[in-house]
């Protein structure tokens, strides 16, 4: 049950694909939780000989299977923040021909893609595959604070406490969706929350 | 009016650089300033050769921010259709000419962390302006320039004198070759490669970079094709309601213009897509020469690029 088909939406909303092996001088994989399954699906011994995996298990037990692929390097850590310095360092030292594969939740893929585009890779050249949770990384457009792993709509901003409506407007610069106050005209009139895709 | 807007200019400098290449400088007839452009832009120069109007695109090679004058470098092609020969033999100091506003089909991607230029022969010209543009912004660049001999290495000395660390020149007569595989392999992430030169060189760079896993968006090239001669043919233009003859030495686009049909264009070299024309009916074979349409479109018989492509057969009806 790690795959989910997102409903059709506006053009701003990212669309994810299926990882496919590509020719390259090196291969960088960044995944969280069930994203590991996408790496297992695409891995070949040739790719893994020049492959580097950054994995955030988030309680899922794929670490040993990924390690068994014998990548050139393997890192597992508790959060994107913990892995970020390593990711930036790898991108800074990388040469043209590096292929980037991202898999897992939208928040993870978005932030890793931002790091890769900042390093100079065109966003269209980065492969992505969604697996696992459909939780979103949301920016409050009022206080600019970011709330991670939002699963319900509306939700309360973890920074300023406003009641926020989950929108499909996405910012690649922030790697976050936009959330807008839902009761600005009529404070306190907030519909009951439900799952984003319910 | 088709093509980019026009500017009346006079020729204020003609400098022969070597056996093949001459540099021309244009200033506005009215003494005003020219528009700024971006490195890689070209202008279409109109040449009044008797009854024939020749329109050839040339890369602008002066400083893009210098609005007092434009310069182009023209390589003489003795086998060609006469445009470059006209520039070399018939254009004199003080002549008034008409050129188009700059159009850029080969601009720098300013998101790049580093710009890697690969030039062959006269393909150096767009890079001259791009280098001046990058120097203003302290851009990171490197040039690899292949030419036949030191004497024909247009601007080689100038580039080496001003940018000794960024410029590497390779001479065919000394058996020097660009080691492309090594060159591409060591480039830092965020490098974009730009190639301008003969067809073979462009293919070589594109294929090598793509096989090494370079993103398509980081590979840039410019190749303007000269219209090649071919057998004369007849075309019916449905919108204009005219039947015209395309001569051996003229392109379909030129034949339309000769007959007073206002057809769109920008590059006149098969690259920009502006002159794309729908085919209404045909019986015969297309000779597609552009690199705008893809293979499926070439095979479909539904589209033609009149600036470089031709036709052999009985009937050709175009939506023009």
UniProtKB/TrEMBL annotation, chain A:
The organism's place on the tree of life at top rank: Bacteria
Domain Dimethylamine monooxygenase subunit DmmA-like C-terminal: 137-180
InterPro entries in the record: DmmA-like_C, DmmA-like_N
Keyword Metal-binding: yes
The UniProt record lists the keyword Metal-binding: yes
Protein name, UniProt field: Uncharacterized protein
Domain Dimethylamine monooxygenase subunit DmmA-like N-terminal: 9-126
Organism: Roseobacter fucihabitans
From TrEMBL, chain B:
Domain 2Fe-2S ferredoxin-type residue range list: 233-320
Gene3D superfamilies in the cross-refs: 3.10.20.30, Nucleotide-binding domain of ferredoxin-NADP reductase (FNR) module, Translation factors
EC category: oxidoreductase
Domain FAD-binding FR-type: 4-109
Entry's EC annotation: 1.14.13.239
Source species of the chain: Roseobacter fucihabitans
Transmembrane segment boundaries: none
InterPro entries, alphabetized: 2Fe-2S_ferredoxin-like_sf, 2Fe-2S_ferredoxin-type, 2Fe2S_fd_BS, Beta-grasp_dom_sf, DmmA-like_N, FAD-bd_FR_type, FNR_nucleotide-bd, MRET
UniProt KW Oxidoreductase keyword: yes
Keywords from the named record: 2Fe-2S, Flavoprotein, FMN, Iron, Iron-sulfur, Metal-binding, Monooxygenase, Oxidoreductase
The protein's required cofactors: FMN
PANTHER family: CARNITINE MONOOXYGENASE REDUCTASE SUBUNIT, NADH OXIDOREDUCTASE HCR
Lineage: Bacteria, Pseudomonadati, Pseudomonadota, Alphaproteobacteria, Rhodobacterales
Domain of life: Bacteria
GO MF, any single term: monooxygenase activity
Entry annotated with the keyword Endoplasmic reticulum: no
Name of this chain's protein: Carnitine monooxygenase reductase subunit
């Amino acid at each position: 049950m790690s795959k989910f088909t997102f409903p059709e939406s506006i053009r701003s909303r990212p669309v994810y694909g299926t990882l496919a092996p590509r020719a390259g001088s090196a291969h960088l994989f960044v995944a969280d939780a069930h994203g590991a399954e996408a790496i297992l699906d695409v891995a070949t011994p040739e790719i893994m000989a020049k492959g580097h995996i950054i994995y955030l298990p988030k309680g899922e037990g794929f670490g040993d299977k990924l390690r068994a692929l014998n990548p050139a390097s393997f890192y597992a850590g508790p959060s994107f923040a913990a892995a970020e310095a390593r990711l930036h360092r790898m991108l800074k030292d990388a040469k043209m021909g590096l292929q980037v594969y991202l898999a897992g939740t939208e928040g993870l893929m978005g932030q890793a893609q931002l790091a890769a585009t900042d390093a100079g890779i065109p966003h269209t050249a980065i492969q992505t595959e969604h697996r696992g949770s459909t939780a979103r990384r949301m920016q409050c457009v009022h206080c600019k604070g970011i709330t991670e792993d939002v699963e319900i709509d509306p939700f309360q901003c973890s920074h300023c406490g406003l009641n926020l409506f989950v929108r499909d407007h996405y910012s690649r610069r922030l790697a976050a969706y936009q959330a807008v106050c839902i009761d600005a005209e009529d404070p306190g009139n907030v519909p009951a929350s439900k799952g984003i895709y319910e | 009016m088709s093509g980019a807007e026009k500017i009346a200019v006079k020729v204020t400098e003609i400098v022969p650089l070597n056996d093949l290449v001459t540099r021309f400088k244009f200033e506005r007839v009215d003494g005003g300033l020219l528009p700024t452009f971006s490195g890689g832009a070209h202008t279409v120069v109109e040449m009044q050769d008797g009854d024939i109007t020749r329109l050839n695109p040339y890369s602008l090679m002066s400083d893009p921010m210098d609005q007092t004058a434009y310069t182009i470098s023209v390589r003489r092609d003795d086998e060609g259709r006469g445009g470059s020969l006209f520039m070399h033999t018939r254009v004199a100091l003080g002549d008034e000419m008409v050129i188009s506003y700059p159009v850029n089909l080969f601009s720098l991607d300013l998101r790049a962390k580093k710009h890697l230029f690969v030039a062959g022969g006269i393909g150096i010209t767009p890079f001259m302006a791009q280098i001046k543009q990058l120097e203003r912004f302290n851009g990171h660049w490197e040039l690899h320039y292949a030419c036949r001999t030191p004497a024909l290495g247009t601007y080689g000395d100038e580039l080496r004198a001003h940018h000794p660390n960024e410029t590497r020149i390779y001479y065919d007569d000394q058996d020097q070759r660009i080691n492309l595989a090594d060159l591409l392999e060591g480039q830092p992430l965020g490098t974009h490669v730009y190639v301008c030169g003969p067809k073979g060189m462009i293919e070589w760079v594109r294929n090598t970079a793509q096989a090494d896993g370079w993103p398509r968006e980081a590979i840039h090239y410019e190749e303007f094709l000269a219209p090649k001669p071919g057998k004369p043919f007849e075309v019916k233009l449905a919108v204009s309601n005219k039947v015209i003859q395309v001569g051996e030495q003229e392109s379909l686009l030129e034949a339309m213009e000769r007959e007073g049909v206002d057809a769109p264009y920008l590059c006149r070299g098969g690259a920009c897509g502006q002159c794309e024309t729908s085919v209404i009916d045909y019986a015969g074979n297309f000779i597609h020469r552009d690199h705008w349409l893809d293979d499926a479109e070439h095979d479909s018989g539904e589209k033609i690029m009149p600036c470089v492509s031709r036709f052999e057969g009985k009937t050709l009806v175009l939506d023009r």
